[in-house]
């Protein structure tokens, strides 16, 4: 048998390494699939480090080359592209993916939706109501129970008593299915997004001697992979050849120091680690569940699926793996572990976070979430109070009327009838609560975000963290990279200074001294990463394709322009022959390569930022190709005459230099400072990176929208300033600052060298360009702007980055954008949104979508709260005055369905318009419900209440129909109440159109047809309403209406639109009495203790619930803490008691973490407060 079994079996058995032998025989050769090494040997090998590992390789395989041969691979040509061979390797050593955790099934989601407290209460009420309706008391005695049950009830009606209970149950089922379906589609979307992120990850491997990019999931053991700066290693391997390679292994070991890797000291490379410097080639030795990340992951239970299969299948392992492949999306181990912003509690997450939490500051709660949480809790509390009062009033009224005024005795046989009344009152109370609690809010937020995320994909924004989408709408500052974001990242050499001559365009090869030309060609060809190359264009007549580092491609292009070929030089000196390489990093800002010359001496080639490298030059090649001395005075002159003019035209200047070193004694290569010095300058070239044509316009839009764009770049200050001017970041005549990293640091640090916030505050408001900046400068600037208190609104900062060194700044920012094309894996890792086209104008789209999310939710709130206010007041007063809510439970549930689920769909999917970019950001402290919205809510609420109360109390006279008030139990539905219900629903429908505008615009129909979802929902609801009224009958408590009555209802409904115009005419500024609602959580409301506890707990809960519900839980958590603290201090008990109580409250909270609709939360908050209130008298345990 082939060892496909081993993949599955080893998934969860760290101990039981050895595969079960097939029944046929235990022949070793059969087992290894003809490779000279087994899976276990490789696994044990990869667990060793450093010298131990080298020793083991030495003992078992003689050398890494030996191991390579046993794996039938070649260090130079890699594997052959033979599909059968690749397939076989996959079977023997496993595939490079880790099976993801199973998604929740639809039934599980239904079960979760059923946990909602309001729904449970309704279910219980409905069941009681059902049970009692079947109980028929003995007929003759019913007289003695008073006229309670008398009235219009005839035989047929008594039979129909069960309908109401059944109808409530049915509507509960509807709500549950809708909720579950929403959660399910959400989960599906996230998984799709996830797999897309994973499929996009590709890696360079050598096959048949050619370097090709393959999806990470296709890597197999024996592949020769090329690793370079910024990569996230997708598999375990052994270094075959490396240049100055440094790896960040903190994701596996937790140690933040970078580990040096070299062929002769420590060649073991592990999956999930990041390459921070250098480059090299590695032989892949373990993939998927057998790699180090995979093993950890499997232990954490991501391989549960495989474990279960193993138990069921045992021997039919082949089939198991086949089905597994189909089921598990090809998922690469490292990425699976790292990139899981959206899966709930994936094994690796929590542990990973625990480690990271120590050193990464937690991102603040998103603005919208803070405001929504607060608002929802306030509304929920109000609803609870209202519903309780309603029930109490109804019960008291009934008891007093029947037993006190009517002077009846409570007879046992009458009990069921009385209880039926109480159940009816209870149901009315619950209905009030159902309507009051805005459980559509998380739904609206989720739909709005999910819809935006989907659409943002089309606008080249791949959103990794949902709330980033909405935070972006509040952005007030963008710190952007220059290269690739503002510019095209297609670099070309356009000027050169060679042999004392400044050429304004590329010189003819004949104009340059042959000796100098030779050195230039060698210096560029050898001292550029061999992964950088220029390929022929895809389309005939197009531009040549640049692969690898773009600056290096520009230099290689320069060689081609000089009519020479860099490939021939590279063939003479292949990468293995390079003696020593000092790779580029942000500290050196240069790269150097040493080669051994035929006579035994060494030559060092160096290239880098001109002002840095020229300081290390002591000679320069003159016109005749011979070196002459190059003194500081010459350097100053060169800077003035060559470098500054080039930089002022927006060119990057790169200096190319060399140095000859003796072969005997051999220099000490570790002393870099002594080696890269006394260089001979060969040439200085000016590289142009043109500004993207659409950028100036995009930046103008940002500035109009109240967003400041700052450019943070590693380039020379003159180049940076020139590009900033071309982009429109700096305008002539403005008062702004352009600083270099050195100056910036000097200005923000005190004498002790510590950074002071006051000093940063003096600089950042005017700063527009930060040049020659190090990654720490970028991080300092972002942190400084975010922590600043000099402006009344806290700044919301977005940052773009592509390099490994941008990680910290991307993490610190409110929204981090990574480049999808040029970005390194490390940057993508730290980011919230990936720009798939690396273009600044896509950021503007993100701002537009972010603002649109915010507005959609405001629209929804405006609509929702109007319905809430009206329905609650109607149910409450109606119940108190007529002992029966004018709107029945089932009708209320229908209203709830339109206003929550459908309205959230309709209003949350409004497409964004350019107008969104014409206003300033809302800011963190701006309330969710503005004065205009408050005016609309109250105005429309008043209109609806007047209409409904008119209909309720004099409706029967207007329409000349029977009065529906004070109807006895189980009486048939009256036309009177049906008209009220119908009018109510139609007013909501027309008000939904009003709700499309929240800034007091007059034209509410503007752009309505650009949103088909909205139109279809409004029309659909109307159609269903007709069906309910005409054919709903007893279950919906509706009597069919005639045409005239329908027309009146419609007329009143359309009145909403006219009334909307009246409201819009009233200037908001004159309504001093209005108050806004839904402010962000104020800072003063939280004690420090609270904050500390909050971070821990909320952080943990956040991992658990990556969903809309998270809003509710965070809020609830905070409120519970506050209640705890307040009530504890009230009774001056010990504080420890409170903390102890708090932890028990939290453990209860964790038991209910997966609830799909949030009404639960509101209730449990109230329960918590109630129970705390009761605890007042007790001593604390």
From TrEMBL:
Domain Cation-transporting P-type ATPase N-terminal: 58-134
InterPro entries on file: ATP_Ca_trans_C, ATPase_P-typ_cation-transptr_C, ATPase_P-typ_cation-transptr_N, ATPase_P-typ_cyto_dom_N, ATPase_P-typ_P_site, ATPase_P-typ_TM_dom_sf, ATPase_P-typ_transduc_dom_A_sf, ATPase_P-type_domA
Localization annotation: Cell membrane; Membrane
EC class name: translocase
SMART domains given in the database record: Cation_ATPase_N
Biological processes annotated in GO: regulation of cytosolic calcium ion concentration
Membrane topology: Multi-pass membrane protein
Record key words, sorted: ATP-binding, Calcium, Calcium transport, Calmodulin-binding, Cell membrane, Coiled coil, Ion transport, Magnesium, Membrane, Metal-binding, Nucleotide-binding, Phosphoprotein, Translocase, Transmembrane, Transmembrane helix, Transport
GO terms under cellular component: glutamatergic synapse; plasma membrane
Coiled coil feature spans: 1084-1111
Lineage: superkingdom: Eukaryota
Reactions that this protein is recorded to catalyse: Ca(2+)(in) + ATP + H2O = Ca(2+)(out) + ADP + phosphate + H(+)
Transmembrane segments: 109-134, 162-181, 384-405, 425-451, 937-955, 1013-1033
Basic and acidic residues biased stretches: 307-316
One Pfam family from the record: E1-E2_ATPase
EC number, as in UniProt: 7.2.2.10
GO molecular function, one term: calmodulin binding
Region (Disordered): 307-333
Matching CDD domains: P-type_ATPase_Ca_PMCA-like (cd02081)
Record function comment: Catalyzes the hydrolysis of ATP coupled with the transport of calcium.
Family: Belongs to the cation transport ATPase (P-type) (TC 3.A.3) family. Type IIB subfamily.
Protein name: Calcium-transporting ATPase
Organism: Denticeps clupeoides (denticle herring)
Lineage, highest ranks first: Eukaryota, Metazoa, Chordata, Craniata, Vertebrata
């Amino acid at each position: 048998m082939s060892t496909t079994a081993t993949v599955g079996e080893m998934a969860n058995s760290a101990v039981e390494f050895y595969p079960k032998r097939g029944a046929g025989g235990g022949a070793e050769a059969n087992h290894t699939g003809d490779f000279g090494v087994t899976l276990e040997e490789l696994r044990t090998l990869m667990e060793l480090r450093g010298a131990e590992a080298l020793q083991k390789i030495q003992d078992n395989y003689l050398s890494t080359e030996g191991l390579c041969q046993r794996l039938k691979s070649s260090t130079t040509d890699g594997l052959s592209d033979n599909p059968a061979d690749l397939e076989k390797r996959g079977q023997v050593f496993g595939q490079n993916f880790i099976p993801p955790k199973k998604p929740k099934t639809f039934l599980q989601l239904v079960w979760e939706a059923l946990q909602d407290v309001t729904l449970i209460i309704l279910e219980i009420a409905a069941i009681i109501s059902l049970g009692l309706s079947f109980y028929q008391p003995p007929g003759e005695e019913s007289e003695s129970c008073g006229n309670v049950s008398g009235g219009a009830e005839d035989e047929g009606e008594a039979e129909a008593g069960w309908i109401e209970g059944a109808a409530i149950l049915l509507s509960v089922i509807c709500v549950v299915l809708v909720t579950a379906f929403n959660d399910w589609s959400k989960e599906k979307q996230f998984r799709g997004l996830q797999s897309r992120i994973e499929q996009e990850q590709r890696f360079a491997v050598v096959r048949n001697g050619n370097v090709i990019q393959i999806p990470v999931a296709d890597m197999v053991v024996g592949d020769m992979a090329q690793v370079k700066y910024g990569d996230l290693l997708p598999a375990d391997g052994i270094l075959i050849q490396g240049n100055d390679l440094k790896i960040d292994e903190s994701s596996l070991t937790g140690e933040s120091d970078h580990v040096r890797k070299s062929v002769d000291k420590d060649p073991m490379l592990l999956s999930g680690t990041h390459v921070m410097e250098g480059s090299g080639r590695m032989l892949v030795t373990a993939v998927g569940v057998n790699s180090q990340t995979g093993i950890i992951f499997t232990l954490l239970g991501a391989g549960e699926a495989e474990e279960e299969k193993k138990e069921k299948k045992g021997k039919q392992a082949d089939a198991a793996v086949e089905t597994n492949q189909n089921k598990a999306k090809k998922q690469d181990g490292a990425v699976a572990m790292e990139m899981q912003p959206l899966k709930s509690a994936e094994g690796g997450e929590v542990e990973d976070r625990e480690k990271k939490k120590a050193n990464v500051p937690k991102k603040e709660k998103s603005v919208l979430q803070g405001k929504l949480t607060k608002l929802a809790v306030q509304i929920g509390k109000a609803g609870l109070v209202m519903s309780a009062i309603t029930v109490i009033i109804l019960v008291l009224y009934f008891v007093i009327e029947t037993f006190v005024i009517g002077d009846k005795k409570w007879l046992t046989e009458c009990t069921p009838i009385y209880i039926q009344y109480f159940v009816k009152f209870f149901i009315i109370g619950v209905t009030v609560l159902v309507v009051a609690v805005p459980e559509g809010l998380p739904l609206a937020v989720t739909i709005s975000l999910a819809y935006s995320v989907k659409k943002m994909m089309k606008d080249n924004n791949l959103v990794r963290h949902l709330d980033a989408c909405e935070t972006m709408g509040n952005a007030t500052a963008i710190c952007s990279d220059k290269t690739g974001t503002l510019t095209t990242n297609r670099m070309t050499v356009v000027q050169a200074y060679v042999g004392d001559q400044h050429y304004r365009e590329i010189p003819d090869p004949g104009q340059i001294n042959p000796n100098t030309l030779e050195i230039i060609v060698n210096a560029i060809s050898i001292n550029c990463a061999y992964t950088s190359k220029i390929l022929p264009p895809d389309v005939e007549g197009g531009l040549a394709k640049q692969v690898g580092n773009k600056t290096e491609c520009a230099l290689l292009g320069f060689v081609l322009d000089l009519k020479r070929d860099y490939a021939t030089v590279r063939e003479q000196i292949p990468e293995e022959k390079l003696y020593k390489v000092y790779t580029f990093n942000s500290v050196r800002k240069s790269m150097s390569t040493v080669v051994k010359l035929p006579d035994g001496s060494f030559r060092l080639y160096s290239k880098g930022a001109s002002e840095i490298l020229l300081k290390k030059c002591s000679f320069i090649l003159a016109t005749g190709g011979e070196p002459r001395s190059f003194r500081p005075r010459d350097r100053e002159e060169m800077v003035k005459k060559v470098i500054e003019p080039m930089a002022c035209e927006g060119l990057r200047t790169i200096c190319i230099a060399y140095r000859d070193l003796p072969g005997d004694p051999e220099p000490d290569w570790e002393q870099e400072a002594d080696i890269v010095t006394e260089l001979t300058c060969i040439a200085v070239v000016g590289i142009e990176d043109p500004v993207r044509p659409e950028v100036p316009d995009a930046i103008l839009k940002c500035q109009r929208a109240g967003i400041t764009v700052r450019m943070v770049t590693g380039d020379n200050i003159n180049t940076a300033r020139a590009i900033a001017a071309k982009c429109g970041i700096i305008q002539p005549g403005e008062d702004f600052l352009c600083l270099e990293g050195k100056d910036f640091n000097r200005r923000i640090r005190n004498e002790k060298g510590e950074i002071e916030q006051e000093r940063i505050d003096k600089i950042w408001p005017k700063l527009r360009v930060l040049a020659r900046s190090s990654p720490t400068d970028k991080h300092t600037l972002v942190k400084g702007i975010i922590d600043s208190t000099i402006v009344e609104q806290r700044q919301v900062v977005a940052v773009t980055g592509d390099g490994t060194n941008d990680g910290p700044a991307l993490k610190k920012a409110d929204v981090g954008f990574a480049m999808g094309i040029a970005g390194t894996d490390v940057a993508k890792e730290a980011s919230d949104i990936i720009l798939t086209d690396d273009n600044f104008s896509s950021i503007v789209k993100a701002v537009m979508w972010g603002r649109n999310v915010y507005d959609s939710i405001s629209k929804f709130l405006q609509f929702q709260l109007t319905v809430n206010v009206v329905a609650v007041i109607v149910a409450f007063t109606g119940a108190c005055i007529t002992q029966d809510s004018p709107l029945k439970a089932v009708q209320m549930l229908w209203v709830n369905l339109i206003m929550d689920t459908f309205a959230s769909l309709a209003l949350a999917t409004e497409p964004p318009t350019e107008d969104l970019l014409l206003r300033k950001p809302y800011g963190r402290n701006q309330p969710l419900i503005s004065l205009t919205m408050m005016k609309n809510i109250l105005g429309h609420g008043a209109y609806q209440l007047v209409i409904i109360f008119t209909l309720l109390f004099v409706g029967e006279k207007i329409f000349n129909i029977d009065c529906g008030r004070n109807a006895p139990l189980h009486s048939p539905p009256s036309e009177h109440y049906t008209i009220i219900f119908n009018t109510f629903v139609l007013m909501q429908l027309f008000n939904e159109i009003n709700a499309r505008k929240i800034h007091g615009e007059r034209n509410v129909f503007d752009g309505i047809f650009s949103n088909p979802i909205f139109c279809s929902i409004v029309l659909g609801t109307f159609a269903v309403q007709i069906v309910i009224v005409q054919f709903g009958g007893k279950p919906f408590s509706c009597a069919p209406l005639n045409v005239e009555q329908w027309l009146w209802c419609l007329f009143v409904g359309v009145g909403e639109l006219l009334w909307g115009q009246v409201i819009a005419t009233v200037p908001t500024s004159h309504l001093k009495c209005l108050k806004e609602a839904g402010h962000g959580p104020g800072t003063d409301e939280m004690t420090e203790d609270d904050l500390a506890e909050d971070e821990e707990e909320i952080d943990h809960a956040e991992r658990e619930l990556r969903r809309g519900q998270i809003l509710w839980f965070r809020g609830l958590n905070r409120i519970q803490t506050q209640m705890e603290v307040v009530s504890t201090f009230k009774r001056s008990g010990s504080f420890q008691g409170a903390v102890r109580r708090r932890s028990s409250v939290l453990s209860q909270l964790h038991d209910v973490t997966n609830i799909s609709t949030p009404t639960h939360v509101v209730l449990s908050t109230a329960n918590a407060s109630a129970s705390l209130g009761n605890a007042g008298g007790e001593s604390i345990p």
